[in-house]
Amino acid sequence: MKTAATTQHQIIASDKFSASLSDYQTELRQNWHSHDEFILAMVLRGNVREQVRCEDTLINAFDVGIKSPEVRHTDHFCPDGVRVIRLSLTPQFITELKNQSLINEGWYWLKGSDSVRHFLQIGQSLLSKNDEIENDVHELLAALLPKKDLPKSHPPFWLRRAKERIEATYSDGIRLNQLAVEAGVHPVYFARKFQHFYGSSVGNYIRKMQFQKVQSLLISGKYNLAQIAVEAGFSDQAHLTRTLGNDFGITPAKLRKLLQ
User: Fold this and answer.
1) Model pTM?
2) I want to staple 113 with a disulfide (CB 3.0 to 4.6 A). Which of 63, 64, 100, 144 is the partner?
3) What is the total count of domains within the chain?
């Protein structure tokens, strides 16, 4: 299906969901609008600035979104275009999940989510035209739902600063204990607060940063895998390949193909 703004390809559909790779035009600006369906999405390439109500969010590669229907929002897609793995759930499936309290309603984005692996598995199935993805969809939902203790306030200043420190120095081998000392809190308290506000362990969040770096270097086409491994903070190419396989179930070659 192709429109002036979006190209959806490699679509898989069932009575529970439809999944697709969606490419959005460069510099596309979408005015205020809403969706009729419940959507789960993960950005593969590029970034999006999205506004919902008064909140403005910058969404980067491998951020995972939960989007309930009828929520008005605007989107501005980056100059290089954006690719998204998009999963739309049917009303019947939503009702089934609601009846068992297995659905998260709302509109929010998660960084470092455990569901990244399952999105990538769905992406590989889309590329290979393998329509046996129902198990991956169920695993993805289990990683995201039900909604538990989503934060009802903003992270404290010391935690925001710690997150910025991670994002700036993750390739240098920053550790939780060091972050806790710098913040002046106990490491267990630090870990609990980080998980609460950002929906991820510190270790998983660091791996997400590494994964984003790998993604950007693969897209550039300027580096071999050994160079990419060093730039992203891995000990060597074998470490990079092993981590991608263990944590995300994908090889560098398959990831490159998914990003192209």
Assistant:
1) 0.79
2) 64
3) 3
